[in-house]
Amino acid sequence: MGALATQTVDTTKRLEALRSLMSSSEHNVTAMVIPSEDQHMSEYIAACDERRAYISGFNGSAGTVIVTLKDAFLFTDGRYFLQAEKQLDSNWTLMKSGLPDVPTWQEFLSKNLEKHSRIGIDPTLITAADAESLETSLKAKESHLVSLTDNLVDFIWEDRPPRPANKVFPLDVKYSGESHQDKLKRLREELNKKPYKAMVVNMLDEVAWLFNLRGSDIDFNPVFFAYAVVTHDNSLLFVNTSQVDDVVRTHLGDPVQIKPYDEFFPYLRGLGGEVDLSDELQVLVGDKCNLAIVEAIGRERITILRSPIADFKAIKNETEIEGFRQCHIRDGAALTRYFAWLEEQLNSGTQLNESQAADKLEEFRSELDLFRGLSFTTISSTGPNGAVIHYSPDPADCSIIQKEQIYLCDSGAQFLDGTTDVTRTWHFGNPTDEEKRAFTRVLQGHIAIDTAIFPNGTTGYIIDSWARRPLWEDGLDYRHGTGHGVGHFLNVHEGPQGIGVRIAYNSTALKSGMTVSNEPGYYADGRFGIRIENIVIVRDAQTPNNFGNKGYLKFEHVTLSPIHKKLIDASLLTAAERSWLDAYHAEVLDKVSPLLKNDTRALAWLERECSPL
Amino acid sequence: MGALATQTVDTTKRLEALRSLMSSSEHNVTAMVIPSEDQHMSEYIAACDERRAYISGFNGSAGTVIVTLKDAFLFTDGRYFLQAEKQLDSNWTLMKSGLPDVPTWQEFLSKNLEKHSRIGIDPTLITAADAESLETSLKAKESHLVSLTDNLVDFIWEDRPPRPANKVFPLDVKYSGESHQDKLKRLREELNKKPYKAMVVNMLDEVAWLFNLRGSDIDFNPVFFAYAVVTHDNSLLFVNTSQVDDVVRTHLGDPVQIKPYDEFFPYLRGLGGEVDLSDELQVLVGDKCNLAIVEAIGRERITILRSPIADFKAIKNETEIEGFRQCHIRDGAALTRYFAWLEEQLNSGTQLNESQAADKLEEFRSELDLFRGLSFTTISSTGPNGAVIHYSPDPADCSIIQKEQIYLCDSGAQFLDGTTDVTRTWHFGNPTDEEKRAFTRVLQGHIAIDTAIFPNGTTGYIIDSWARRPLWEDGLDYRHGTGHGVGHFLNVHEGPQGIGVRIAYNSTALKSGMTVSNEPGYYADGRFGIRIENIVIVRDAQTPNNFGNKGYLKFEHVTLSPIHKKLIDASLLTAAERSWLDAYHAEVLDKVSPLLKNDTRALAWLERECSPL
């Protein structure tokens, strides 16, 4: 969440200029939409945000803009109602998504606009699949989507900051575990199966993974703006050439051609002729591809499928897995130093706000080997703020951490050898029985996932209820998933696997080598939030039998940070759960304490927190 | 499974006669299909079986017949390969369903038959939905389904036994808990919501439930051949009038019109004119309706949806629930008498086969109040036969029960006040460690379902993995669902709810008042089978919290029969699981022992089996 700005922008002139372009004979549209960013389409993360902020004045991180020749609407959700009310001027109508009787922006386009509307959209900002379903629902009013060759907001935006173009760097094979040559070979084998003539890679993390390159164009995600096309003979990387130096060129070697980013769409338009496409021989494109790619190649020449690179990337190799283990030991040391420091601060009566505390945690992390930044904005939250699931403290306006309230901290970092994401929940005073009981139920759900054994073919959808069962027994629950995939020195949220109630998680079986978070929680609105999150890796399990010859799987946790015993109601735990906790704490102490030789406060704290229950 | 007949029928003349009818100008078809019965379309249970047996000579309970002008094929599954090989003469080709490279009968029709085939089918023997998807797949060869006005097998079958037409009788409201007038009122309120002009009821158990009538036209299922049509003003029951006496007429009262069964389709063909149907005002038909109904009314005039009666029926009222409790106490007494008797027989060295034992169980049950027959063929199985999930002993050729093998008994009865279905697994000698460990894992899965608490909206698909988790820990699993719905003095298998891995179970949330079985198992092919099955009723749970205001649910078990302690490895159980078992046994003893005053052997056995672990 961005800072809660109170300054409003007068959007009158900007809207006038936009509408003039819209009604020009060249574009000829009666409405225009800038959809909210889709986190999964990382190729344009921030692009929507920026343009939405410019045209509307609202700079929250989620929202869809619809501008017609007369009116202007901003759709955003409950997290941003207050901010949007403050930032939007009188040209704008705020549409509060999620409230009863408020249509989605898609419904609004197909039901509230006039018949025969021509709705302009930048085809790089919508997936082909979303565009197709939107086009279908527009039929009722005989309206149409119109792909704009250029984004009209960019035309009227004089001082638009350029797209980030930071240096790209190679990720050594000692961290990635597989050369990009081998990855390209695997991809080509996949293309041969069907056969496809080529694959267009449009997800930034897939490009980064495929070529063992990383960047810093997007906060927290070590990726860079790029597209790639892989044919049987060629690999083309479309990237702003100013971002690529000789180190990168040497790393990639001759077989990979580097092309200017802006030549991507012209190249696609010529692709049909070049590789001899036909109904039988098609171009493979991932299912998150944007509409512009489909239009450039031609819908009849492409096959849209779940990207094979997403499936490759989801399964970590042994080098990546060992990297996950190692970076989590270091990360555990920084967490220990931070929590020990925080406890001392609060015990000594220091007034610390949530953001200052988060900064201290970042400071400890930044001293770690191979550290390359945070993996997301730290959620440092006291009392009621912990119940706001996506809370992040505004440095200019956040709460003082209260010793007598639950403190929830969800944080993570990027390292060359892996990515971390960990939540711990503390109470530095005297927790209530209610808080302890809820925390214990969450812990029991966490242990149920950690100790899970299940046959190959089982999805995260199937085992999600194991995490909820202890909470359900008390009539408690949480309104988020139990676990998301995690990239290896890549996006901290990564598909396609996950553990949760979203039916999409039922389409991907958990496989050995996949990483997921294990993060059940409980949130008492206006009072406190609880979450216990470790990263776990799916591994083969050695079971006494192997019914059905399927092979059975288990989880290996890599996160190493004590779970707060003071918040546990031990009477609720089974003997097996107690043993799990004690063994986990012994493991944490064993692995993390060697890194704390120079911080006696942290070491003493860790020894205390890791003692048997 | 029927008796394994070895006598074959010469089908040459029958096939000749059939083909002559097929190629007549009146029918003009090049192939004919008799699909395997669909258990859910109870209106014609047995009709397919009989005709298949007549034309092919194969009298197993599952199989599809396809006759072309030259060839004849029988498709059946692994349970019946041996029987079919023995029974089919040289006119027939056996298609072994489930083996690699053997097409389904639908694939066979759409891929193996000649182009432009005209495939005759009796439209009462296929659901409209199945016919629609079949018609689509036939397009590739420009073939077509042809609805035959009469079943051609019936024409050539001279001594065809008449359709069963046993007496129909009313079920007193003291058992049903709701008058048929009130049920009709509820149904009409449902019709009004949309609004629909009428509903056609084609499932036999739905007709029986709606009018509080029962019959005995189909083994084990207390239903009778009938259709019904409910409009806002009329209720029409189409039934062979010889089955209906004055008691039934008085019970139904004037507002229900009884019509001859054979007038059903002519009535439907006139329905459009009678109730003034239009695109807006349609006839509602359940999604299991047959093609003949759709063709008689006209596809454009009907709406096919999951039957609201199925949803009504699935939720038992308090009278039905109390009936379930009471009949299970009586049923538990018969089970006790049987297992005590069986143990004594085996200890004394009596040679008993599986079928003789099952007969004794039926004898004990038949002495119970309100008994109306078995609810399915008793599975009485020793050793390896227990691993055949749908085994039932052939009286003429079954195994002697071995004291040193696991004995699995799955059985149930129909009572005026409810339906039972219970599986218990015993060992009358010395079980192996492997058997005990597997039994204990199954028991732990059973307990996990029995003690489940979950929010409203949760489906049986979601909680199925709770039953499997203890087995998965040992690399074990079972290849059937965990639970099916159970009718109230109706079909022992009843939809739409259930607990299992079939995705269809994810479409129906478990609701208070629903009945399901809880029957995890484990099967070691060729050696033994284990299953522990109770019937449970979904009830509101009193949880300390009510997060999300959803309300939380639990299960109440009604089955009362001891779970074999000798087969339990107590070291695997948690303290909570031990307590559950002891409490369950105390409840069984408390409720069942008062009915055993005249059977000291049974009482002594029950006291021993119900003592604390």
UniProtKB/TrEMBL annotation, chains A, B:
Tell me the ranges covered by the Peptidase M24 C-terminal domain, including all copies. 551-613
What high-level taxonomic lineage is stated for the organism? Eukaryota, Fungi, Dikarya, Basidiomycota, Agaricomycotina
Q: Which family does it belong to?
A: Belongs to the peptidase M24B family.
Report the residue ranges that make up the Creatinase N-terminal domain in this protein.
14-149
Q: Which residues form the Peptidase M24 domain?
A: 323-539
Which key words tag this protein in UniProt? Hydrolase, Manganese, Metal-binding
Tell me what this protein is called.
Creatinase/aminopeptidase
Name the cofactor(s) required for activity, per the record.
Mn(2+)
For this protein, the record's InterPro entries field holds: Creatin/AminoP/Spt16_N, Creatinase/aminopeptidase-like, Creatinase_N, Pept_M24, Pept_M24B, Peptidase_M24_C, X-Pro_aminopeptidase_P
Q: What's the source species for this entry?
A: Somion occarium
Cross-referenced Pfam families = Creatinase_N, Creatinase_N_2, Peptidase_M24, Peptidase_M24_C
Superkingdom of this entry's organism?
Eukaryota
